[in-house]
Input
Amino acid sequence: MQPYLGNPTYTAAVLRNHHISARKKYGQNFLIDSDVLEDTVRAAEIGPDDVVLEIGPGIGTLTQYLASAARKVVAVEIDRSLQDVLADTLSGWKNVEILWDDILKVDISALAAHENAASPIKVAANLPYYITTPILLKLLESGAPIESITVMVQKEVADRMEAGPGTKDYGALSLAVQYAAKVDIVRIVYPSSFMPQPGVDSAVVKLSLYDAPPVACRDRGLLFSIIRGSFNQRRKKLVNGIAGAAGVPYTKEEAEAAVRACGFRPDVRGEMLTLEEFARLADALGEKT
Output
C-alpha cells in the first residue's frame, strides 16, 4: 500500500519526483492536511457499498482516502499530464478508475447507471476553484441519482450556498443549491493546509440532495430563468430584472402585475425574495400563458 498523500513530506517528494508544479490553468493546490481529508470522507459518509464520483483528483490525495472507504471511486480528471503520477500514487488501490475527460462533458446519469445500476452515487471532491459554480450546477441539474455532494470550495462560495434573503452573499447560486439540497458547512480550511498556499480560505461543504424540492413550482425552468434574471443586475428592481430576461417571455407590465398579485411591493428587488416567493412568482407568471 502506498503512503498517504496527506503527509506533506511525502507529497513534496511525489511532486519533486514527477517534476510537478501546481498549474494555475486548472486551479491546482495540493492538500496536505490529513485531518481535512479524514473529515471530508467522514462527512460524506462513505462506506464499503458506495460508488463515489470524484472530480479533479489531481495527484490522488483525496482519492486515496475515498478508495480506502468506498467500493469504487471513479475519478474524472481533465489534465492528462497527471497520468504517470496517478499511476504511482494509486498503485495500492485497485478500486479506482480514472476517467480522462472534462466533467462538464460527462454524462453523469450514464456513469451512475454503468457503475451502480442507477442506484444513488456519492460525489466527493476538492473542486477546482476557477470552475466551481458550473460543476455544482451541472451536478445539481443532471438528474443523475446522486445522494450527496461533499466538496471543498472557496469559503466565499460556501457562504453563498447557505446565504439567505437580504444578505450580500445571497444570489442565484444560493437558490439553485437550496432548491436541490440541504447545505451543511462541515469545516473551514485555511491556506496552510495546501501546497502551494492559496490566497483564500476554503470550506468543506456537504449537500444532501432532496428526494423532492422543498417548494412546489409548476415550471422549474421558468423559476430559474426568473431567478437568474433578477440577479443579473442586482440593484435593479425585480420587474426590470426579469422582464425580457432570457427564458422569461413576459413584458414589464406582465411582470409587474404578477409581482403585485403575489403581494410584493412593485419596487422590490430579487435579493429580498425567498425561494418560496420566487416559486409563487413563477406560478403567477405561468398563469399568463
